[in-house]
Every structure is written in structure tokens, then in C-alpha cells.
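User: Quick one: structure for sequence A, then sequence B.

Assistant: Sequence A:
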Amino acid sequence: MLDSEALKEERANLVTALNLISGYDDVVSALFELSAEEFDEIALRPGVIAWQRTLRTTVAGRSVFAVDGAPLSADATYLHILMERRANTPTGIRVAEDDHWLRAPFGSAIIFEPDSTSPDAQAVVTEALGIIECWRPELYAEMRQICRAIQFVRDPGASPDKIVSFSDNSVPGALFVSVVQGSGLIDPYDLADSLIHEHRHQKLYLLERVTSMIEETDEKVVSPWREDLRPPSGLLHAVFVFVELRRFWLHVRDQGPSRMKQRAISQLSDTDANLEAAFKILARCPLT
């Protein structure tokens, strides 16, 4: 199960948010009458966490804004959607679900793929997760515990061939990935890379709840993966991600399909060079 402290925190936060609501007694009571397992599953959904954080913050008199600066407010009608969708998925990961609170924190800054993309892309997600499970069953099991949602996004400002992905701690457990590349769908091995990449960020976010890994500092450092200077925590995240991706691409090089061999070799060459530089920089950072 997900770290017990994180689970207890999100369960308590949802209880607090529900107790702040008036005028929705029936649906609030129905949520409280769910089994502990059902209630915990809902409490850990990334959209629910974004919703209850916004509700609690605005009730406390503080404003909440999306990435693009648009104000956010938490509508209690969202509770009806939760009850309608309370059944869990077989993997525990909700793929391309039309959940307003998975998307609201980003406003107009992110474009989400239309529903028409979803059926074919969901098949690629299933294949990508299968690749991860066959390679490292323990990693797949960990992803099922930590990651609760996958959303399909695109960057209109990037080349159509560029693969993009991101995750954000405002919606913990959600992975935002591109599934369209050029005129077709992404290769499942590249999608597996994106899913592992964002999962590692989410895993480190959880660890950062428990303890700080960087002393407080205004210092900015060079990151081999970025053009702009980054805080040391950003560099630590990059290293944590690419150490795992290096393992994955070694597997693809040695045991993957022939079409991916050169891709894996190229990826490993870049990753090895970047990690070598990154570890030297990280060694000079104020780690705890």
C-alpha cells in the first residue's frame, strides 16, 4: 500500500473538506458510508486531492490559481461525479478520464487530447504498462500503488515529433503524457519511458514529504538536461529519474525489439554523458 503516512494525510484532508460542505448532505453522507477501502481509494485520487486542497484553502480565505493565473474554486457538485465513478479500475490507474480536477490546475497552459484519441491510445498505454511489468514486475506494482491517473496531453508549441510528459505535485499520482507523435500514435516503448519518468518524479515527491534532501538555498545550478539554471532539487529529481531510465534503456537495447535498438543506444549515450556531469554538480550541492 502507499506510504501509510501519506494515506492518513489524504484521508484526513478529504474528511476535513467534506465537513466544510453544506447543502450536499446526501452525497456527503453516502461518501462517509463507503467502506474504508473505497473511501481511501477516492481520497488518493489525484483529482480529489487537487479538489479538496482547493476547497480547504479557499474556505480558509486564501486564493488558489491555476498555472495560467486563472482563479480556482472547488464546486461541491464534484462529489456526485465521485459517487458515480466510485468503482475502481482493474489496475487502479484511471486512463484519460474526463476529470475536471485533473486538468483545472493547469488552466489553458496545457492542451488535453480529445476523447476521439482515447480508445486507440489506451491500447498503447496497456502495451506500455505490459512492457514495464515484464521487465520489472516490482516497478509495475509500485506504479500501480503510487500512480492513480494517466492523462493525454500535447504541447502545441513543440515539434509534432517531440515526445512530452510532465507531472506536478498539485495533482500527486497523475502522469501527463503525450500519446501522439507526428501523424500517428507514440511507440509503446517510448510511452513506457514517459510513464517511468513521471512515476519517478511522483515517487520522489512522496519521499520529500517525509524529509528534505536539499538544504534551504537560493542557489541555482546547471542541469545537463535543461537550458535554464535549476534549483538543486530540480537537478536531484532529474538524476533520480534518469538513473531508472538508464536501466530501462539497457533492457531495451539488450532484449527489446530490433526497431528500438538504435533508439536505445542513442538514449543511453546521452543519458550516460548527462548523468556523469550531473553527479559532479550534485556533489557540490547542499544535500541533507
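Sequence B:
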Amino acid sequence: EGCNEILVETNPEVVKQIHKQFLESGCDVIETNTFGATSIVLSEYNIQEKSYQLNKKAAELAKEAANEYSTLDRQRFVAGSIGPTTKLPTLGHVSFEAMKASYIEQVEGLIDGGVDLLLLETCQDVLQIKSGLQSIEEVFNKKDIRLPIMVSVTIETTGTMLVGTDIATVLNILEPFDIDILGLNCATGPHQMKEHIKYLCENSTFYTSCIPNAGLPENVGGNAVYKLTPIELKMQLMHFICDLGVRIIGGCCGTTPEHIKLLSEIVIEIDNNVYDYKFKQPNKTILERSSSSIYSSTPYNQDNSFLIVGERLNASGSKKVRELLNEEDWDGLVSLAKSQIKENAHMIDVNVDYVGRDGVNDMNNLAKRLATDLNLPL
């Protein structure tokens, strides 16, 4: 009950039929049925040992369907869907290494099953994204292979990711990574995504994707109902393509084959010069160099000041910090860090190196608290 991923074993024809419905609607890329196929999620159903085989089987099913609809003139592709799991590493639900190990298993299954690209989607935590990207790189190196990578984050109606990260910070954190596409999916319809998509189109060095829900979900009789019609979705995304520069579009929650059929018509209409459209290349200029916390970015070049680094949280130079460490008074250390914000520090230096203590454990305990309690970079 609730484990859609097991269907690739128990009812593969149904999964394949769903793939075919969307391929018949004209889409170029279908996703594998692996959104929750990490061992972290599957352990909730006591089938965590099936992670590799479910991912491999799902990729093979999707690839079979894509191949059936591929022609010499038009190839269809398969994206290996990698979801955010049900745990947030930033909030301490799972360790970075445990999440990474779970992702490695999934990525290996997807690649062995024949996917054409890897999609880290519905991302809600930048630490989760980093874990996924590190996992992908490890598998690439192990298998001596490289596939395109797409990252799709979820921005809530609050204007940030679930843990509080704004889109500028997402881009600043991910800009150094070797990915190809960065965009948004889920949570909202295109209307609520516009501000964030516009920012990416103007500033991102990657191609921009937009895969919204069919509007904001409404609770009707205890069920989530999405009321954005296919033609409404098409018109809004046409604006994103022609006016903003989005290069990849699709549908998330609430979208049907009929929604996708109308979206695929946009490509045909562009090819037939129905619109005055010019492809917009990603921004190749260097972003303003910044350091980021979970929540926001701090430019290194300050307009009205030199860059101020608060250095009081330093066990090597502060008796107070050493005393707080020995007492393991983490709240006291966090308060010391916060006091420097009042003194206009732009970022916080953290040093727990102190003879006789376990520095790795101290840094782990302190950094994870500072990361969520401070809005400044460390």
C-alpha cells in the first residue's frame, strides 16, 4: 500500500502502459517509476534490499517503451527519477553519508537499466542535492561513464525551499557543480514559479527547466484536485519559453496525457515559426561571487563595507569557547555566534580545534546547529 515503485515487479504492464500514454501524447522524455526507490524510502515497507533491482527494472521498462516510439527522425529518452527521499539531512533526519550510500545504490540501478539522463527532482534541501550529486559522480567514475544531469528544486508558496533556501542561494550553491539543467518542479503551478524561473533564466549558467503542477492543489472531499486545464498550462508555459528563455518544459502533479499533448504542440508550432522565437543560451558570465548559508547568499564584495568575518567562535584563541566546549554547551556556542551577527559580521569563522577533545565530533555537533540557527555562511 502506497509503494508505487513495487509496481515495476508486481504489475509492469500497467507501468509500461502509463509510459506509452505520455509517449503517444508527444513527449520527448519519460521518467522512470523510481521517485521513492532508494533504500531509505523502501525501508518503510521493509523491502530496502530491492532498491537496485527495482531501479534497474524500472529503467528497462521505460527504455523499452521509449524505444518503441523512437524513430530515425525523433528519438525518445528516459530520465532516471531520483526523489528527495522522506528525510532531510539538514534537519538531522539522516546522515549525509547514509543518504549518499542510498543514492549510490539507486544510481547504479538506473544506469545499468539504460537511462539516458539522471534527474534529481523535487529537491527540498540543498544538502540532499549535494549528497545526490556526489553519489552520481562516484558511480560515473566507477563505471567510467557520463550522462547528462538535471536538478529540479521545489519552491514552496513561501518563496523558498522547504528548509528555507531562496532560489538565488540554490543557484550560488550549485553553480560549481557539473550539471546540465537546473529548474523547478512540483509544489505549485507555473504562476507561482514565474519569479524564480525568471531569476534562473537571467542568471543561471545551466539550461532552465520548468515542470509545474496543474495549478495549486485544492482539497475537494479529502482529495487533492488540480484545476489548471491543459490549454491554461500551455499558454503559461509558452510565455516562459518565448519571453523568459525556458528550454525544458513538462508536467508534474495533476498533469495528464492531455496536458502533455498540448505542451508538445508548442515545439511543433515553434518549428513552424508560429511564434517570434529565438533560443536563449544560458548565462555564461560569472555570477557575483558569494558564500552561502542554507538560507541566503553573502557577496564577497560588499558595497558599503569590507567583508567582515566574525572570528570569536575560535577554540584556539578564546578561553570562553574552550570552556563552552568542555561543558558541551552547544546553545552557549550558538549564542556566541549569534552575537557577532549583531556586530554586523557577514560570515562566521568556526574553529573547534582543542587538545584533548574529539574535534570531528565537536565540529559535527556545532556545525549542524549553526547551519540551521544562523542565516550567515560559515
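Residues 150 and 181 are 5 Å apart (CA to CA). DSSP finds 13 helices and 13 strands in the chain.

User: Thanks, that's what I needed.
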